[in-house]
Amino acid sequence: MIPTCTTCNDTRRASNGYMCTSCPIPCDRCRYAGNGPFCSEIPCGCGCHRKSVEPEPELSYRCSTCAFKLFNPIAELEVSILGLYNDARFPGRSLLVFKDHYGDFTMMPSGKATAAFTQDMQRAGRAIHDAVGARRMNYAILGNVEPHVHAHLIPRTADDPIPNRAPWAHPDEVTPLSANTLAELGRKIVQILGKR
Known about the structure:
By secondary structure, the chain is of the alpha+beta class. The chain has helices spanning 112-132, 179-195, and strands at residues 61-62, 69-70, 73-76, 80-84, 94-98, 136-140, 150-156. A hairpin with a 6-residue loop joins strand 1 and strand 2. The protein starts with 60 loop residues before the first strand and ends with a helix.
């Protein structure tokens, strides 16, 4: 059976055999990106996508002062960048990195920037909460290892084996999510952020 787009019933396929409507760029007919695997190229060349569409530049962050690098960045907020942490124990666990360099939260200037960072933190936390169906969110600003202001956003779900303890006390080793799960989770968080 040929998979179809759930909105427009498009069955056209990319050269790699996957549905074009599964690309991150929507098909021209329904403007909807499906839930299946991605095409290998964007635009995929099968005629489903507008040829003039160029993929957006990949989001990245590296501090020019301390060289702190954020892995798996998924969204740019007002004064910070949100990166998805690859941790199967806490799907949705993220780092929120302040764009400008400050080695410690207490050294940040009072006022708009600090307020905007905490608003970004709450906004990202709400999106992660909704994306994974968390019972609650944990927030931590440490800076003991990386001297650049960043916050850990850790969703706590119903199946959490240590719901009343800090996430660092989790008995299991960190194991990565599958690439597909990580990508889908990132898309879901970004989609929710776009609606807020």
